[in-house]
Amino acid sequence: MAASASAVRLYDHSSSPAPLRSLLRTALPLSLPLYSTLSTPGLPTPVWATLSPGAVPENVQDSPPYVILADLGNQLRFFCSTEAKRDRTDDEVKDAAVLVSGALRQYLRQHAGQRDRMSIGAIPDIWRQTVRDTFGVEPFSASEIHYRLLAGLPDTLTNGSTKGASVLPGGIVTTKGRKEDVAEILSNSEVPHPPSYLETRLAHTTVLRSPPAQTPTNAATCTSDPRTAPSDPSTPNGFPPDTILAHCTTHRDGSIGTLHVSPLARRRGLGTLVYLARSHTMRDSEGAEYVFSYVHKENESSNALMRSVGMDKSGYEVWWARIKLPLPDEDEA
């Protein structure tokens, strides 16, 4: 199916992505991975589309098929309007697949730079075969999207503050990520993120820690041996000062990932607590409208966590694909 890349024209919207973001908003939640990418603070994101800057419609239903894509440096996110088209026909899906194929190839041929590989992420089921046929690779890591509007979260989780941090119920301290946390966070991540990437996300990382120092009220019960941590699910007492108990990160596409709870601190509700703490920060300080995560069907603990924080589920799977660059010439594909 490899459509001729030269048949698709892409327009640069990087300097003014707001009209595309408004358009994507009309296709939520189907457009959530890309909409959130364009709404998440961080490094500038190149944004391209098959729509010219002066021809962006107001509604996803109001135009012929189009593709919007964003370059996160090591990954692409894309959305095709046919995904959200009501009562779409098989022929419309086939035509849109040609457009998707051509847009992806065109972008990767023209903007690969010095990169020798690129991932395409959050590929919905409807385009899985298109990506397979276009690039000759098998998409992997099927996940469902769990999401919810942030407007419905409780107003606050905190019951106090310390210098540069907040205190959650039970005295657990929540802070942003620190540079010295990177090695530990990466050691617990299922995805091999480079340290340099995680360093750019520390401001968007929430870490739950034991208190930084003993106080008169807890000194009698504190111990330097975390194996003797008490059974009270709401207290960090018993852990060494400033121990990382749990953490999670908002990635550049706005999804929450790298969530981990220390094995010695599990079954105390800290996964829910750190997820909600990060969600509060996204809503109150980062302007996010939605919180979402990619979760494998077979990950029972993560699915239970998603249910506990009131997430809806996409009902379809998304996939990832690794593309070797540079792409071969058209006549070699």
From TrEMBL:
<dbReference type="GO" id="GO:0016747">
    <property type="term" value="F:acyltransferase activity, transferring groups other than amino-acyl groups"/>
</dbReference>
<feature type="domain" description="GCN5-related N-acetyltransferase Rv2170-like">
    <location>
        <begin position="244"/>
        <end position="319"/>
    </location>
</feature>
<protein>
    <submittedName>
        <fullName>GNAT family acetyltransferase</fullName>
    </submittedName>
</protein>
<keyword id="KW-0808">Transferase</keyword>
<feature type="region of interest" description="Disordered">
    <location>
        <begin position="209"/>
        <end position="239"/>
    </location>
</feature>
<dbReference type="InterPro" id="IPR016181">
    <property type="entry name" value="Acyl_CoA_acyltransferase"/>
</dbReference>
<dbReference type="Pfam" id="PF08445">
    <property type="entry name" value="FR47"/>
</dbReference>
<feature type="compositionally biased region" description="Polar residues">
    <location>
        <begin position="215"/>
        <end position="237"/>
    </location>
</feature>
<dbReference type="InterPro" id="IPR013653">
    <property type="entry name" value="GCN5-like_dom"/>
</dbReference>
